[in-house]
Task: structure prediction
Amino acid sequence: MVVRARTAVPGTECFARHLGGQERASFALDLTSDQRLTTNDRVPRMKIDILTIFPDFFRGPLDYGIVRRARETGLVEIAIHDLRAFTKDKHRTVDDRPFGGGEGMVLKPEPIFECLESLGDVASREMRLRAGAPQSVILLSAQGRRLDQTLAAELSALSQTGKGRIVLICGRYEGVDERISEHLADREVSIGDYVLSGGELGAAVIVDTVTRLIPGAVGNQNSTRQESFTESCSGQTELAGDGPSSTCVSGGLLDYPHYTRPAEYRGMEVPEVLVNGNHEQIRSWRRKTALAKTLRNRPDLLQRVRLTAEDEEFLAQIKLDQGTDRDEARPVSTKD
Result:
């Protein structure tokens, strides 16, 4: 039986399932009464479910900025599910010792399987593995594919199907029973080559990176197409309207430096090229400084992108200015 805890607008329900004497709780992130007045009642373009043993963790990180606005306008619906509510013993045990011995504890499969099954309308793993599937169940794991902008865009594209849904399973302890990876999740994702105490931080990162790419989440969608690591942007040009477009300059590199008013602060001046009104010089400066920053901080990216003849000339000049032909370079000035 489903027991409604209170009356709420769509996307803000808090309910508890009482099955077999156990309280099984899930909740959507709350909106205040003022925010509910602006909430759009349309069907969300993306549903995101987070399975965790620390549900209260998400009351903070996802309640600010773009993610908050996307929730308020109905673009995305986020629900948090407490795995401990899907246990059957009085201690609400979610972990156990690993077979074969070893250090640490392993998250048990039963609460995760039962929690996912309680959602009701999540497609089977076989269906989710098919090309073009609108849903994905992701296990946050240090052994997973490393999250990058390409993967974020891929997940965000699920929203375009009108039935987009992402389920994020937050691992803990030594790991998660491998049967989750083999029979439940359709992919494993890591947010970097380091180990966290659990998957909650990673889940929050994925929610943010994916949500901001959903059309309508950001006021000026072009701003999400230019950023660091964004490889391509079809149909856009470097020069648009009466000035240089910031869109698509990155091309898979790190972003170029940004400046705003005042033009001079404590003796530190904005590069003259950015205020002289010459659009072609600005475009060239942006590309050259993006190459310089990439060479300095992430030279590995230069091996992944297609460099133009102009790019090669810029790189040669950057290395000459630095007095080195090494792949890793010292910091260079951002002034033209």
